[in-house]
Amino acid sequence: MFFLSIKKLLCVLPVLAKAATVTYTVPTSAPTGSTALDPAPVGLSFEFFAFPSYVKNVTATNQCLQNFETLTGKWPPIRIGGTTQCSPVLVLRDRATYDPNTSAYVVYTVAAATDAPAALTFGPSFMTLADTYDGTVVLGLNRGHDNITNTIAAAKVAKSSMANLLAIELGNEPESGNSNSAPPTWGAAELIATENATAKSYVYDYAHHNYPGGTITSLMSHSTISSNVGTFTADIAAAVGVGKDYVLGETNSGTSSPRHPQNPTKIYSLRWWSSRRISFVRRRLWTMDYILRASLANIKRTYFHHGTIGLCYYCWWGRYSMGAPYYGAYAAVAALAGGSYISALDTGSTNYAAYIIYDSARTPLRALLYNSDYYAGTGTRGSQSFALQGLAAASGSVRAKRLTAAGAGSRVDEGSNPTFGGQTFANGTCVVGGTEVFESTAVVGGGATFTVAASEALLLYLQ
Ligand SMILES: *[C@@H]1O[C@H](CO)[C@@H](O)[C@H](O)[C@H]1NC(C)=O
Ligand SMILES: *[C@@H]1O[C@H](CO)[C@@H](O)[C@H](O)[C@H]1NC(C)=O
Ligand SMILES: *[C@@H]1O[C@H](CO)[C@@H](O)[C@H](O)[C@H]1NC(C)=O
Ligand SMILES: *[C@@H]1O[C@H](CO)[C@@H](O)[C@H](O)[C@H]1NC(C)=O
Ligand SMILES: *[C@@H]1O[C@H](CO)[C@@H](O)[C@H](O)[C@H]1NC(C)=O
Question: Considering every ligand atom, which ligand is closest to the CA of 113?
Answer without folding.
Answer: 1
